[in-house]
Amino acid sequence: DKGNAGRGRGKAEGGGRGGGGREEASVLYPNNIPPLRLYPVDPRLPWMSVEMSPSKLPAALAEQARTPAGMKDLRGQLVSARITRWGLGTVWPSCELHQSLGTAGEIETETAALVAQYNILGADEFTPEALACLPAVPAPGTGATWQVPEEERAARRDFTGVRVASIDPPTARDLDDALHAELRSDGVLVVGVHIADVSHFISAGSALDVEAAQRGTSTYLVQRVMPMLPRLLCEDLCSLNPGVERLTFSVEWEMTPDGEVISEWFGRGIIRSCAKLDYGTAQRVIDARDAGRTGAAELEEAAAVAGGPVKVSPKSSSSSSGWNPEAVAESIGHLNGAARAMRRRRFADGALRLDQSKLSFELDHEGNPSGARAYVMREANQLVEEFMLLANRTVAKFISEAYPTRALLRCHPEPDARKLEQLQSFAQEQGIAIDASSSHALHRSLQRLAVTAPDSYQVAKLLATLPMQLARYFCTGSQDQDTWGHYALATSRYTHFTSPIRRYPDVLVHRLVAAALEAGFGGRANASGFNSDGNKSTVDEGGGESSIGANKGGKRKGGKKNKGSGEGNGIGGGGGRSPSNAAIAAAALRWGIPTTQQLHASAEHCNERKLAAKSVQDGSMHAYLCAFLKRRPACVSGIVRAVGRKFLCVFIPTYGMEVRVPLEGLRWLAVSQEEAKEKGAAPLSVTITFDANSTSAGPEAG
């Protein structure tokens, strides 16, 4: 199988630790180069013979291999290579070296190796054809900025008079989403989620669209981002930065203060965010309001920090949309109150939360890790998450009804039943109370453990992830409807709509929403009988209605009736009749909606790219943790999860990760085991004691 063999350490035949074989210094290739072996990093691959012909061996590597000093240096390097030959009767394949990535163990070398291994493309690797698709913008230094085209302004709902803000990680530069909230005098809470309209800048089938589809996702390393889109889009024109007008796909709900949806509107809009907040600042506002303060002082303090994570537009107390700490703090309070209630209901309905631990690093001025800790999800994160989940569910239902065989959704199959039984049996053996009969029961079990037995909770949460299958993208026309659901979220329909700057599936979903809206899908206007712009709607006894007023690119669906809901909060729906097949097909063609087969292939590619990005992100965190511990060794507590004959599986809460501790070759430690009755089974117990006279240490112990 030709292709990238990944990465490996280059070593001379018979040389270096673990080189194996006899010394073959007498066998020389052109220019006095000894035969070379490649030892892949992937332990599943055998060592490989390096193609030695001058046409296949890079000149720089050949020069290093020519001298003993160069060969010594080469043995410690990571190189990229490609398998060229692997015959049926051959144990060891042949490979062709591409280039040296640097000295093994260094952060940038390990990063380069990860990127090469998983074929991740960087910010400077967009093709000229893709870059040619970018819109023209004013030259830097002219003081001019990109402006919303007038034809877009006429076709979209104007949210620039609404106070909108974003809440993101402190280092974020690609701001996908923003929120607004207002409690009306009639007691109805109006909440809007605004998502960057990336599809406006990327035409379906264009060179830029093809490259974005190929990348599939942005990849977040500890020290940098490998973006899905050129920086002009992901950090500027699409990013919902404060103080500038930006194009959006927006969803707006009328709801009760505790988040019960009354009606919904979605369509294209224009916003001008008043602030970029970080999760830490939003959390301080939440804490302040819980303590009886307004939270405005916390916002003012954060905004006053030069170079800090909070960025705001010029303060304007008279404007309904400008930066106003009191008003923004009040909006955060409304949003969090609704999110708390929505979250309680979601878990009561069967949702399950199994957070995978992530590491957070502090970097010094040279980019080296100076601190490491497990990333903690706080209520501010959950606030944003709750409304993103609601938006994704809302859109999933809409597009799957509009295009039942051509919609892109995300499913999460039920856990593996056999592994779930093993989880419950193991938990009982260890005295851990876990009920895995349903997602709701499992969530409640874990929550009880978190309070009553934190150590057991850490282990149980890790074990509970083992039976879980991976969530994945799929085309609705390629699998049965009863498999569309999402187990962990306990919902029958789910998709990704809220991060189009960094996920290509979201771009496809935006096009589906645009096509459905253009075809005429939508629903009813406000239950009061008025569209948001004040135009009267006619309502029949069966609840259907047709809008008489203007319809600027959006639809509102009504639910419960509420008094006074006709005041300017959304743009009316498109009537009670279903769109014609001709209109549906025409809209799909105009927006470049893929066929069922094409969308299935896109979903599979996006699944593969998402897994690749996660592997690179995990590898990046691991490389930085190793570098940090090498500079600052630490003594931390661990929880033994499992015992093997030659190792212990230990969970490290400090870093949110599991490690395997070998039981052989330990200096000054004596190991004894209580054998199990079943032949070949793991020991019942392992006892490790300090013994200064122990001779169990092997030659590699240290």
Topology:
Layout: E1 3-12, E2 36-40, E3 48-50, H1 59-65, H2 68-75, E4 77-85, E5 94-103, H3 107-117, H4 128-131, H5 150-155, E6 157-158, E7 165-168, E8 177-183, E9 189-196, H6 207-215, E10 219-220, E11 225-226, H7 231-237, E12 245-255, E13 261-272, E14 275-278, H8 279-290, H9 296-303, E15 311-312, H10 325-348, E16 359-363, E17 369-374, H11 379-402, E18 408-411, H12 417-429, H13 439-452, H14 454-465, E19 472-475, H15 504-519, E20 537-539, E21 545-547, E22 554-558, H16 581-590, H17 596-631, E23 639-643, E24 647-652, E25 657-662, E26 669-674, E27 685-690
Parallel strand pairs: 3-5, 6-13, 7-14
Antiparallel strand pairs: 1-2, 1-4, 2-3, 4-5, 8-9, 9-12, 10-11, 12-13, 13-22, 14-15, 16-17, 18-19, 20-21, 23-24, 24-25, 26-27
Helix pairs in contact: 1-2, 3-17, 8-9, 8-10, 9-10, 10-11, 11-15, 13-14, 15-16
- Overall pLDDT level: 85
Give a short account of the largest sheet: 6 strands, mixed
Overall outline: globular
| Gyration radius over CA | 29 Å
The DSSP helix count reads 17
Computed structural class: alpha+beta
Helix fraction bin: 25-40%
**In terms of quaternary structure, what is this?**
single chain
Amino-to-carboxy terminus distance: 40 Å
Low-confidence stretches: 1-6, 9-27, 523-552, 559-575, 697-702
> How many DSSP E strands?
27
Approximately what portion of the residues adopt beta-strand conformation? 15-25%
